[in-house]
Design goal:
The chain is an alpha/beta fold and 361 residues long. It has a single domain (8-301), classed as Beta Polymerase, domain 2 (2-Layer Sandwich). 50% of the residues lie in helices and 8% in strands. A six-stranded mixed β-sheet has the order 3-4-2-1-6-5. The chain starts with 7 loop residues before the first helix and ends in an 8-residue tail after the last helix.
């Protein structure tokens, strides 16, 4: 693994400080290509567009194209949500926006800067049939012949609109019951109801999770698996969410809500990495209490997993025969287990020898 500072950290720092004058020449072609592939193409375009030298770079057209494409794709997803919300309003099914469709419009300076693969909506169990019916009427279809493999899932089988090329996921919970995070009290139905906020999306009445619960959710969704492509997006989400929340963000509630749970581990990993590169400002007391609340990371484990983020999520280091994507993912999940690091290091070769379907959750 490389020990050099990843180039795209400069991009994340520019995003954090709202700069638009970075020199595109400061990024090599591999980093630019990785930014585009990871969903940060429009953001890189935004951070370099005011530099007069940027347009002379051979990669300028690729960035501009990524920005224009994102605008079109986001427009299609926004229009799809407006139609879905309108169709659901007639049967009184209340929609809670999750992930990209929520944070892009609520927190980002321009919604298209936050790419998404689908529209994620949270719906109460007693409204699932009504929402499914509304989606069918709009032309959305579930493509497989059987939804049995989604019985233990936290969302229905995804819906797809062939003409719009839009995927929709209807969630009835935030995590599958097979995930460690699912049993955390912060994600209980009672807490979801208490942390649900009335909001508006393009003039339409919807609901969103509170900023505090959104942060715990995105940290948990990001950290529970090693996801190389798209892993950068959660870092940018965190920057913009905390900017939008401002001084009213309740760290006191958050620390109390995650205390001693696996989401505390996930959140600690995300925030320590952000603080390490000065991407967000968080009071030392908050980080100290979060450190005491989580049960997985001592200094060695945290340094190791930060190095994985540097190399594979940000620096686009290639996998090899010794460190394949699967093996890095297993190291990631093993280090996330509770307890001191040294016994977990003994577990790593054991976990590497297990069949692929024997996953650490």
């Amino acid at each position: 693994m490389s020990s050099s500072r990843p180039q795209l950290i400069s991009l994340l720092q520019a995003i954090s400080s709202n700069r638009e004058d970075l020199a595109l020449d400061d990024f090599d072609p591999i980093s630019i290509a990785w930014a585009i592939q990871s969903g940060l193409g429009p953001l890189l375009y935004r951070t370099v567009r005011q530099n007069p030298q940027s347009s002379a770079n051979s990669r300028w057209s690729s960035l501009k194209s990524a920005d224009l494409t994102a605008r079109v794709v986001m427009g299609e997803h926004f229009q799809a949500l407006r139609e879905i919300a309108d169709a659901c309003r007639s049967n009184l099914a209340q929609l809670t926006l999750l992930k990209g469709i929520s944070i892009s419009e609520q927190c980002y300076p321009e919604p298209h800067l936050r790419l998404m693969r689908d529209v994620d909506l949270l719906v109460a169990n007693d409204a699932l049939a009504n929402v499914t019916s509304a989606l069918h009427q709009l032309g959305y279809r579930q493509l497989s012949k059987s939804g049995l493999r989604y019985e233990k899932h936290h969302h229905l089988e995804p819906f797809f609109h062939q003409e719009k090329h839009v995927w929709v996921e209807i969630h009835h919970a935030l995590f599958s019951t097979e995930r460690r995070a699912a049993s955390a009290s912060v994600f209980s139905r009672e807490n979801l109801a208490a942390q649900s906020r009335p909001s508006r999306f393009q003039g339409i009445e919807v609901r969103r999770l509170s900023f505090e619960l959104q942060l715990v959710y995105l940290a948990s969704h990001w950290a529970q698996d090693f996801a190389r492509v798209g892993g950068l997006v959660a870092l940018v989400d965190t920057i913009y969410l905390l900017k939008q929340a401002g001084p009213d963000f309740s760290w006191e509630w958050l620390l109390r809500a995650v205390n001693g749970s696996i989401p505390a581990t996930y959140l600690y990993l995300l925030l320590t990495y952000m603080v390490r590169y000065d991407l967000v400002k968080i009071a030392p007391g908050v980080m100290r209490e979060l450190s005491l609340s989580q049960k997985s990371f001592d200094r060695l484990a945290l340094k190791t997993i930060h190095r994985i983020i540097d190399d594979y999520l940000i620096n686009a280091t290639e996998f090899g025969p010794l460190l394949s994507e699967r093996s890095v993912g297993i190291i990631w999940k093993t280090l996330m287990l509770p307890g001191p690091t040294l016994p977990k290091l003994v577990l790593i070769p054991i976990n590497l020898s297990l069949p692929q379907y024997c996953r650490i959750q």
